[in-house]
Amino acid sequence: MAGRLEDRVAVVTGGASGIGRATAIRFAEEGADLVVADLSAERGAETVAAVKALGRKAAFVRTDTSQNADCEALADAAAGTFGRIDVLVAAAGISHALYVSGAPTESVQGTRDAAMLINKPVEYWEKVLNVNLTGVMLTDRAIARKMIEGGKGGSIINIASGAAKIPIQGAADYCVSKAGVWMLTKVLALELAAHRIRVNAIGPGFIETPMTASMRSDEDRLRALIASTPIGRLGVPEDIANSALFLASDESSFYTGEILFPDGGLFTG
What we know:
- Helices cover about 45% and strands about 15% of the residues.
- It has nine helices and seven strands, in the order βαβαβαβααβαβαααβ.
- It has helices at about 20-30, 40-55, 70-80, 110-115, 120-150, 170-190, 215, 220-225, 235-250; strands at about 10-15, 35-40, 60, 85-90, 155-160, 195-200, 260.
- The N and C termini lie far apart (about 40 Å).
């Protein structure tokens, strides 16, 4: 039985760890070939190896999504290697300016007061917006251009966050960047519909990834997070990968400009 993405080509940014890696592997299980983009060549190679172990083709392209030249080079490499691009998952992102991709714990930002917007350095704000919002825009448009050239449409999936609609003290830059991704998704959905390119987003709740490791290492905080999630557990990367699979597949052919919130009920209301 053919997979839901049989012989399609997908590009996944942030594919070296967490949600990006889980999505790349899930797509391969459903028959897709992958282009994995990330800053870490070593961990990106691990994802590529996992995809190839499933019998699919895969390539790694080192990419800083906040740089336009890198995003254009990624699109060129993907189209050049596989001849087309059917799906993009823009999963590259950071929780704060000092976060290191794939690190087991978050970098220390200082005191809680230092994280408040009135005290936060402007360069911290700019770093988060550059990666989380501008980086998604640059990636989306570079890949969309290749999809338009191919003439067969496609599916673009942007990873936003539940923080796109729920304010979090000390994380103004993150919340604003993810809210921006949601609006970017809706605008691009309108602009690209004529080319049969669907654009949707996913707003995860608390997921067990390296980005949330420091929160989960504090037992009291972990219990509080679980208690605040009606379904009674934190999410795992595969939960988000399955949402991305739906949006990438023909099962969501009438979805565009939408955002799904796989959050265990955390952001209900």
